[in-house]
Specification:
Shape: globular
Distance between the termini: 29 Å
Largest sheet: 4 strands, mixed
Helix content: 40-55%
Number of strands: 8
Number of helices: 7
Number of domains: 2
Strand order of the largest sheet: 1-4-3-2
Radius of gyration: 18 Å
Length: 194
């Protein structure tokens, strides 16, 4: 997920690696194969958490965007173009809220579960350095041991993202509690860790 900016969208297309999605104006295709969501962040969010875009005209309700913005990273695309990219924990947070708003959109759930499956491969150094205690919280003989560890770490990081947003924190905890799978329970446990 990248930050939405119509200028950046056009500049990405000019690189020749990105093309416009045929039906959704805030999506691009990278090399005609990978769907990339362009998300509006920052000062354009109104108090009611809506973002009104004029090119084309539509309104998005944005719970979670303000919370993840301070943790986005700059990705250099070319010498004169960089885009802001959302963290994995931020993506999971947005997908939790999105699925809660539209439960029929099951892709959010499968995306979250995919991220949990590959999270250790992406962030093992961070887990060892900053969250090693989670390695002792689960039975290493469990077939999904690493996913439980990762889900717990993700929950901890989501808690940090939501530190200033009590209402959204309560909402996300409620979302996780309503889906009592082992991975979701581990994320909830991470959000409840001291």
């Amino acid at each position: 997920m990248m930050m939405y900016n119509s200028n950046n969208s056009n500049r990405l297309e000019e690189t020749g690696h990105f093309s416009q999605h045929p039906t959704e104006n805030i999506k691009l295709y990278y090399k005609n194969a990978i769907e990339v969501d362009l998300l509006p962040f920052g000062g354009i969010e109104q108090e009611n958490r809506n973002v009104r875009l004029t090119d084309p005209l539509f309104v998005l309700n944005m719970p979670g965007f303000k919370e993840i913005y301070p943790n986005v990273e700059d990705m250099v695309v070319s010498e004169d173009l960089s885009v802001k990219v959302c963290s994995m924990e931020g993506i999971i947070l947005l997908k939790l809220v999105s699925n809660d708003d539209r439960p029929q959109r099951t892709k959010d759930i499968t995306d979250i579960e995919h991220i949990i499956r590959v999270y250790f491969d992406l962030y093992d150094g961070s887990i060892y350095d900053e969250h090693f205690d989670t390695m002792d919280m689960y039975d290493a003989n469990e077939k999904d041991y690493l996913q439980l560890v990762c889900a717990r770490v993700i929950g901890r990081k989501i808690k940090i993202l939501l530190g200033e947003s009590e209402n959204l924190m309560a909402r996300v905890k409620g979302i996780l509690a309503r889906r009592p799978t082992t991975w979701w329970n581990a994320m909830l446990d991470g959000m409840n860790d001291a």
